[in-house]
Structure formats: structure tokens, C-alpha cells
Design a protein that fits this description.
heterodimer, A: 304 residues, MetI-like fold, globular, disordered C terminus, B: alpha+beta, OB fold (Dihydrolipoamide Acetyltransferase, E2P), 2 domains, 6-stranded mixed beta sheet, 5-stranded antiparallel beta sheet, 9 helices
Chain lengths: 304, 366
């Protein structure tokens, strides 16, 4: 009897508490879903519209029909673009620029971050902050002085860099290196100090500590930095617009705009197709690297 | 294998002097424990031996060679860290063999050494796992394995057991002792736990405030502490200290604790303290086990007195008793069958044959 009484007494309070907790959770979830759905619609409608438009003929695009529906689907836009040498050149230029920029960025920022995070030397803290500050200067302020610098460089040496796709290999790292260095400093700083001390005692040089311990352990950070550098170089618009003009030197974003808009004639179907195709490589790279990016590799290095 | 010698070693960080000139000789095969409260400079000393910290002044010698400016990798030492510091992306076997692989040892030799160490530490079935799949005790074994495979001149341990729970700590302590008995490598071990220091060490180095207070075997430190710091630091519960002075009553030397309590000193002690000034402010140091229940058989040097117990702590094999004397809490240790009750008076005995007399001003044991 006593035990029943006890249960009777405690049961209602407990149940009420549980219900209120689950009600809280339910509401939190509803709001989450509401805003996530809103955001998903906001973000996904433009690509969807691009996809729909890319499947239409120019006639259908300008016809006064429901713009959200394809009445006569066609792949002609895709066929035209993928068989046009011009578009393939843009694609090749973009790919080359991005791959080289990512490589250059990583080769500079990973050792720089390691030095700034671990090899304490005079002024290293100030330098680390300085690296980040350079990232804060907007590119819209930098392109004119940079352009002038290349002109002067060309006058002095006779090496003409303007209007060559590889000038971007010099320009883009001014955007990617500071940010990637900053990300990597953060990742390297989170690696316990004992780990490099253990490596040093095991007989590793600084370089071996970087390549055999730090890079594998900070791989998620490295991938985050790679994704960033790739995205920046792939999507960059202002610098290539300024520094390259001949059609054979253009990268994808600028190429689409300059060749598919002729005066006031917009080849909407091809523009949309080009934009969609241009968005594919970053998407593929994200999909492949996301798992690595999320995986926490530092677990188990030290206690807790 | 080698001996380790420290000569007037000093470490200064800007304004702070962390290590203030210590001399230490560690013999080949010896197991030496540096013990002291946090901030006493013990870890800094170990890190200087490892080469992870520069020394500001003095000399460190390993195997007779001065290694002041020798980088860690060329000192032929191995270190075990408090938080294990295992490489998270490598398996246990890779962790253990990393140093050997850097030195380009032949594969077969590496395998033999790793297998041997794994067997010694009972982690053979774990060699293909990653550190995150291991428990704390297993990680600590791997960290030790990484040190053993290198077969270095000196092992350095930096509080290796402080991240483990109490039970595991006792178990790993025994493991470390077993390993040392097998490989006989000169070992320097840092801990703040005096029990660990006592149980593991051939010799214990008690450090305080950047200086060495005393070096000795565990028993020497326990029975003959040189200073009040050592007397209070070694032993648990800690030694009791009571203000006292010496006086002569009827031609016999007495020690006076309170206005009403004074005991005659045993002859050996009276002889030892005969030159101590009768006016000096002194302290009587007495370990809890020398304050017990009064026995009906009078023994020389054992004196009885009465006290009202404040708190009792039954521990099973013994009962700790606490009472206040002259405003100081005193701890004693009585037989669990003795009639000890909190709040009740009890007849106690103190064993003056095991007393320590300290100078209150200098803290030195007389």
C-alpha cells in the first residue's frame, strides 16, 4: 500500500514535467522546420528556375507562358554550350586557375600557419593578426592598385601579365592565403602541445612534425581551407573581369557574361545552362569532401 | 643506459625563477621521483632534462656528456606525458614505432621491438587500434610502449597517472614498477602525489619553490625528514605539528606542549637536544601513528594523556581520531577496537621515541 501511495504521489508531477519538456521541444522543432524550409526555398528557387529555363528554347523563354513549366523540353542549350570551343576554353581556364590557386594557397598557408601557431618567434603573434587584417581589405579597393602594379611591372620588365589567365594565379592568393592561413592557425592551435613535443622527442624535425603529425591530424581544417580556396577562385568575378579581356583568356563566370550577352540581347537559355554547369564542380567537391570535413579526427589524442 | 647529472641548473622565465639552482645525481638504472606541490619546478626540471626547455644556467649531463645545447632527439631519451600525447591518426603499432621509423630502422627490427613491448605491456591485441578506441589505462600503456621500443638511455615520466581514476592509478603504478624492474632504464618521474613517489622511487627528490628540499630513499624521507616542508609533505594523513618548548624539570629534559601538559623526553632524545636553547620557539612533529590509544603496559618514551575527541574516522583496519590541542587539530591513529567516540574523552599515548623537533623560525628539523 505504501509503495502505491508513493507512486500515486510522484506520478502526476513527473508526467507534467515530461509533457512540458516535450512541448518545449515540439515548439522548438516546429520553428526550426519553419525557418529551415523558408531558407531552403529561398536558396533553392533560383537554381530551380535556372534549370527550368535551361531546358527551354529561346522562343519559349520569350513566350508569355507559365515561366515555371517547360512545355517543350529541349537539351539544345546544353548541346550548344558543350560543343562550343569557347565555353570549353572558359571551363578549362577556370579549372586550371582554381587547381593552381588551391595548390599555391595550400603550399603557402599551411607552413605559414604552422610557423605562426607553433614556432614561437619574435613578432609571430602580431604577424598572425596582420595576416587576418589583410583579408579584411575588400577586393574592390585592391583591383586598381593591383592593375597599376602589373602595368608598371610590364613596363619595367617587358613581361606582360595583364590579359593572361595566369595573372589570376598571382592575384587570387591575395584573397585565399590570408583566410586559409587564419583557418589553419586555429586548427593547429587546437592540437595539444604535447603532441609536437612527443614528435620532437621521437626525433621528428619541424618539417616531419608538420607533414606526419599536424597535417593528418588537422585534415578537417585543411579540407575546409581547400574548399574555401576553391570556391573563391572558381566564383571570383571582379578580378578576372578586370585583368583578362580576350575571350581565350576568360574564366567561366566572366566568359558567360561577356559572350552570351551581346549588346542588349541575352541568350537566357545558354546563360542559365552555363551557370548551372559552372556550379557543378564546387557541388561535386563539397559532396566528396563533406564527410571528411565533418569528421573530428583529433578525438583520442589526449584525455577528454 | 646512463646516469643523469644536474649541476646548479637554473630556469628563469622573464622575471620568474622557476628553478633556482638544483644539483642532482641520478645513477644508472635508478628510479628517481621528483615530487612537490604544483609550481615547485619539478615539471620544468624534467622538461629541461628532456630538452623541451632551454636551461638558463648550469649544466645537464646524460651519460657523462653535457647536453645543454643538444636537441631532444639527440639526447636519446623517451618521455611519457600526462595526457598521453598519442598520435590520433596512427594505430597503436604505428604510434609505438614512429620514432624508430623516423630513424629508419629495418622493418623486421621495428616489428620485433614493437611486439616485445606490446607483450610486456599486455597490449598485443590492441596494436591495430586507433587511440580513440582505447581506454585511459590502455592509452597510458601505449604511451609507455612508445617509450620502451626506443630503448633510450633515460625514461622521463611527467605525471603519467594523474588522468587515471584511483583504482587504475594503483594498477598502473605497479605496471610501471614492473617495467622498470625488467628494463632497468634510468628513470626520472615527476608527480605531485607523494604516495606515488614513495611507492615507485629508489630515491625521492622533494622540491619546493624551485629548490630541492631533500633527497633520500622513501624511508629516509619518512622517518628522517630534514625540513618542516618535507615532514609535512610526505605521509598521509600529514604529520602533526604542535608548538612546544624544552625545559628542565628536576634534572630531566621535558617537552612542554601546554601549561598543563609536559612530558619527559626519552634519554636518546634528551641527549640529541641537549644543546637546543630552552627559550627557542620549537615545534613537535609527530606522525598520526605515534598518537595511539593508551596501553596498560608502560613502554619507555611512551607517555599518556587525556583528550576529548572531536571527530573519528573509522577506516576498517584502523580508526583515525582528531582532537584539538591549543587550537591546533591533531590527528591520531588508534586500533579499530579501541573505545573511540566523537565528543568523548579518551586516554591516549604519544610515542616520543619517534618525535621530530623543529625550529619554528627556520623550519629545520633538529
Amino acid at each position: 500500500m505504501t509503495s502505491t501511495a508513493v507512486i500515486d504521489k510522484s506520478a502526476p508531477t513527473r508526467a507534467v514535467k515530461l509533457r512540458s519538456m516535450s512541448r518545449d521541444r515540439t515548439w522548438a522543432l516546429r520553428w526550426s522546420y519553419f525557418f529551415l524550409t523558408l531558407f531552403a526555398i529561398f536558396a533553392l528557387v533560383p537554381p530551380l528556375y535556372m534549370l527550368i529555363t535551361s531546358l527551354k528554347t529561346s522562343a519559349e523563354i520569350s513566350a508569355a507562358t507559365n515561366p515555371w513549366w517547360v512545355y517543350h523540353p529541349t537539351l539544345s542549350n546544353y548541346v550548344e554550350l558543350l560543343t562550343s570551343n569557347q565555353f570549353l576554353t572558359f571551363f578549362r581556364n577556370s579549372a586550371l586557375v582554381s587547381i593552381f590557386v588551391v595548390t599555391i594557397t595550400m603550399l603557402i598557408s599551411v607552413p605559414a600557419a604552422f610557423a605562426l601557431a607553433r614556432m614561437r618567434f619574435w613578432g609571430s603573434a602580431t604577424l598572425a593578426t596582420g595576416v587576418f587584417l589583410t583579408y579584411l581589405i575588400p577586393e574592390t579597393l585592391l583591383f586598381l592598385p593591383l592593375f597599376k602594379m602589373f602595368v608598371v611591372f610590364g613596363d619595367l620588365t617587358g613581361i606582360q601579365l595583364i590579359n593572361k589567365w595566369y595573372v589570376l594565379l598571382i592575384v587570387y592568393p591575395t584573397l585565399t592565403v590570408p583566410f586559409c592561413t587564419w583557418i589553419m592557425i586555429g586548427y593547429f592551435a587546437s592540437i595539444p602541445k604535447e603532441l609536437d613535443e612527443a614528435a620532437i622527442i621521437d626525433g621528428a624535425s619541424w618539417f616531419q612534425t608538420l607533414t606526419r603529425i599536424f597535417i593528418p591530424v588537422a585534415l578537417p581544417g585543411l579540407i575546409a581551407a581547400t574548399i574555401f580556396a576553391f570556391t573563391v577562385s572558381w566564383a571570383q568575378f571582379l578580378y578576372p573581369l578586370v585583368f583578362t579581356t580576350s575571350t581565350d583568356q576568360l574564366v567561366l563566370p566572366v566568359g558567360i557574361i561577356t559572350t552570351l550577352i551581346k549588346g542588349d540581347v541575352f541568350a537566357w537559355g545558354q546563360i542559365m545552362t552555363g551557370a548551372l554547369l559552372g556550379a557543378a564542380p564546387p557541388l561535386i567537391i563539397y559532396a566528396f569532401l563533406m564527410d571528411y570535413y565533418i569528421a573530428g579526427l583529433t578525438a583520442g589524442a589526449t584525455k577528454g | 643506459m646512463a646516469d643523469v647529472t644536474l649541476r646548479k641548473v637554473v630556469k628563469r622565465y622573464d622575471e620568474v625563477e622557476a628553478v633556482r639552482g638544483i644539483d642532482l645525481d641520478i645513477a644508472d638504472h635508478e628510479f628517481v621521483v621528483l615530487v612537490g606541490p604544483s609550481g615547485c619546478g619539478k615539471s620544468t626540471t624534467l622538461r629541461m632534462i628532456a630538452g623541451l626547455e632551454d636551461i638558463t644556467d648550469g649544466d645537464i649531463m646524460i651519460g657523462g656528456d653535457v647536453v645543454n645545447d643538444v636537441p631532444p632527439k639527440d639526447r636519446d631519451i623517451a618521455m611519457v606525458f600526462q595526457n598521453y600525447a598519442l598520435y590520433p591518426h596512427m594505430t597503436v603499432a604505428e604510434n609505438m614505432s614512429f620514432g624508430l621509423r623516423l630513424k629508419r630502422y629495418p622493418k623486421a627490427e621495428i616489428k620485433t621491438r614493437v611486439d616485445e613491448a606490446a607483450r610486456m605491456l599486455d597490449i598485443v591485441e590492441l596494436v591495430d587500434r586507433k587511440p580513440k578506441q582505447l581506454s585511459g589505462g590502455q592509452r597510458q600503456r601505449v604511451a609507455m610502449g612508445r617509450a620502451i621500443v626506443r630503448n633510450p638511455k633515460v625514461f622521463l615520466f611527467d605525471e603519467p597517472l594523474s588522468n587515471l581514476d584511483a583504482k587504475l592509478r594503483v594498477q598502473m603504478r605497479i605496471e610501471i614498477k614492473k617495467v622498470h624492474q625488467k628494463v632497468r632504464t634510468t628513470t626520472v618521474y615527476v608527480t605531485h602525489d607523494q604516495v606515488e613517489a614513495m611507492t615507485l622511487a629508489d630515491r625521492v627528490v622533494v622540491m619546493n619553490n624551485g629548490r630541492i628540499e631533500q633527497i633520500g630513499t622513501p624511508n629516509e624521507l619518512y622517518h628522517n625528514p630534514a625540513t618542516r616542508f618535507v615532514a609535512g609533505f610526505i605521509g598521509s594523513p600529514a604529520m602533526n605539528f604542535m608548538a612546544c618548548r624544552l625545559e628542565d624539570v628536576g634534572g630531566k629534559m621535558h617537552i612542554r606542549l601546554t601549561d598543563s601538559i609536559a612530558f619527559p623526553l626519552p634519554p636518546a632524545r634528551a641527549e640529541r637536544y641537549k644543546n637546543v636553547s630552552r627559550t627557542d620557539r620549537l615545534q613537535l612533529g609527530l606522525r598520526p601513528e605515534h598518537i595511539t590509544e593508551a596501553s596498560p603496559h608502560a613502554e619507555p618514551g611512551v607517555e599518556n594523556f587525556d583528550a576529548v575527541l572531536d571527530v573519528i574516522e573509522p577506516m576498517g583496519m584502523e580508526t583515525m581520531i582528531y582532537f584539538i590541542m591549543e587550537g591546533v587539530e591533531i590527528c591520531g591513529r588508534v586500533n579499530p577496537n579501541a573505545d573511540a567516540r566523537a565528543g568523548a574523552p579518551m586516554r591516549l599515548a604519544i610515542d616520543l621515541n619517534n618525535m621530530h623537533l623543529l625550529n619554528e623560525a627556520t623550519g629545520a628539523v633538529i
